[in-house]
Amino acid sequence: MGAKQPRTRPGGRSARVQESVHRAVRELEAEEGREALTVPLIASRAEVTPSTIYRRWGDLQVLLSDVAVERLRPEGPPADRGSLAEDLETWAVEWLEEMSSAAGRAYIQDALAGDREGGNAGQCSAYAAEQVAVLLGRAAERGERAPDVETVLDHLVAPMMYRILFRPGLLDAAYARGLARTLLARLTAEPTK
């Protein structure tokens, strides 16, 4: 059964239902714990019928995945520290801290567990790419040489995500800064085109 997975924020009644259900999940998880979550309990709290949740999300795991993706959405643009090196290092440290926290890991696991078709992974990747694009855009405005978004994703974000998922040791600020510095050192070592 192919369940719908909202990717954009819908309008009208659909938006109200999504917000109500997402809020119910967050509240119940905080109050009762994750293991207590059921579709009927969530539906009751959200004041919708269980069939509304099944129709929209298909099952509990897909709903939890949808909520996790929304929670992984950045709240705003990354801080501007005045240089690409500072911006990239600061962003990498903050991103690693958030994603490797207990809550971050749970959201990542939920996002991927209900991701039967790859859309949630793509959305989470898009969030990181959007943040990186802001940093690189600022660097370009300052006249700094910068890598492209894909290079940053491949050499900074991907290694951190790999360690978060599969090798949780060595997840500290020094690791994130080291990846950012190595990426920028490679850039300065390459001849200008």
Description of the molecule:
With 193 residues, the protein is an all-alpha fold. The chain has two domains: 47 residues, Homeodomain-like (Arc Repressor Mutant, subunit A, Orthogonal Bundle), CATH 1.10.10.60; 117 residues, Tetracycline Repressor, domain 2. It is 71% helix and 0% strand. It has nine helices and no strands. Helix 1 crosses helix 2, helix 2 packs across helix 3 and helix 4 packs across helix 6. It starts with 11 loop residues before the first helix and ends with a helix. The N terminus is likely disordered.
Question: What does the secondary structure layout of this molecule look like, with pairings?
Answer:
Layout: H1 12-32, H2 39-46, H3 50-57, H4 60-72, H5 84-100, H6 102-113, H7 119-141, H8 149-166, H9 173-189
Helix pairs in contact: 1-2, 2-3, 4-6, 4-7, 5-8, 5-9, 7-8, 8-9
The total number of structural domains is 2
Q: What is the average per-residue confidence, as pLDDT, rounded to a whole number? A: 90
CATH-level-4 superfamily name of the largest domain: Tetracycline Repressor, domain 2
Instruction: Return residue spans where pLDDT drops below 50 for at least 5 consecutive residues.
Output: 1-8
CATH architecture of the largest domain: Orthogonal Bundle
Q: What is the fold named in CATH at topology level of the largest domain?
A: Tetracycline Repressor, domain 2
How much beta, percentage-wise? under 5%
Number of strands: 0
The arrangement of helices and strands along the chain is HHHHHHHHH
Terminal-residue CA separation: 50 Å
**Fraction in helix:** over 70%
> What Rg, in angstroms, do the CA atoms define?
19 Å
Q: Indicate the overall shape.
A: elongated
* Number of continuous helical runs: 9
Specify the structural class: mainly alpha
